[in-house]
Amino acid sequence: MNTYTASIPGRSLTILFCVLAALCEGIDLQAAGVAAAGIGAEFKPSPGQLGTFFSASTFGLFIGALIGGRLADKIGRKKVLVASIGLFGLFSLLTPCAADVQSLTWARALTGLGLGGALPMLLALVSESSAARHQSASVAMVYAAMPLGGAGASLLIMLIASSQWRTVFVVGGVIPLLLAPLMAFWLPESAAFQRERETSATLKAGSVMALFAQGRARRTLLLWASFLLQLLLLYLLLNWLPSLLVSDGFTRVQAAGAQIGFNLGGVLSAVLIGYLLGGRLRNSATIVVFSILPLLLVLLARSPPDFKIVAPAVFVLGCAVLAAQAFLYAVAPVAYPIRIRGIGVGAAVAFGRIGSIVGPKLGGMLKAAGHGPSELLMDLLPIVVVGSACALWLAWEVARQGFAQQNAQ
Known about the structure:
Blueprint: H1 8-34, H2 36-43, H3 47-75, H4 77-94, H5 101-129, H6 135-159, H7 166-186, H8 191-199, H9 217-247, H10 252-277, H11 282-302, H12 307-334, H13 341-368, H14 373-379, H15 381-401, H16 403-408
């Protein structure tokens, strides 16, 4: 028996640790958005400065995902993941020490380096540690933990005064710093990676050019475009939705409640889409998600300023947006062979972070130009339509060429 075959307890432990790490990521990724009201009251940033602050962590994510993905193909998934979790925990804990908007922005950028290095490793580890028929469900379940962590951050900000916004970053720093040493001792390395390293005389880190070789170019470009456009929408909503709702006349508590609904809807839909991706309804579920996403955006934009109407609309939009993300995160690891999986997933996540950077900044620019909540949401419609078209094309490519089945063999 191969000594690197992942045991069932080993798989379960890997998935558990990855779920906990994803929860931490979710808290830190949304910390800036839910703390925006308190930051705005204390530092009085302009809309442009606030947009830059929102985008700072995603710029760090872009760099961290590229570096982390490349290192993971050389030294292993576990080492990169543990180091990344410790890094974003440390800089999140240091964020409350910032004295102005500029230092806050730098702290978020450095936090993003760790967040970017961790996310591709979570996807690769879970994919490589799961049975072939459960890969999509396992990846989606881990991804679902991220909006659950974001909901926790929104709940926390509801329970404290806005002037205590630093508490969110303290919580987002302490938990990963406690988790990192536990993972260093007990998290098993990817059995698939160890087998690859054992059978190769020299295991070299994958290169970006390999992502375009052997017929992978179209798949890679569609994956990158889908990540970019879908993450642009997601991060603009995560960072600006509470502020947009407040400017539309809702209270801070109502805005935070709607944000919780957005995240909880995402948790439920991500788990559901993961289950469906492993069965006969895979193609139908994908078509439904990406077809209704533009319609739901229009529905929210046209909803009257009544919380009883807006809250359900935000919940359903969160279902669609985060189900779309779960699909992309489930597809990314199985789109590439093990030897270039780290750089493949890292590059896809990194390229998507361009959208994460542009999204919050775009929201700031549109708001500064005087666009109201409804108008701003309608401005996003062309982006959502193109992003959905790219994702559907990618889904067709996956179904046609059977990448998941090829990698499972």
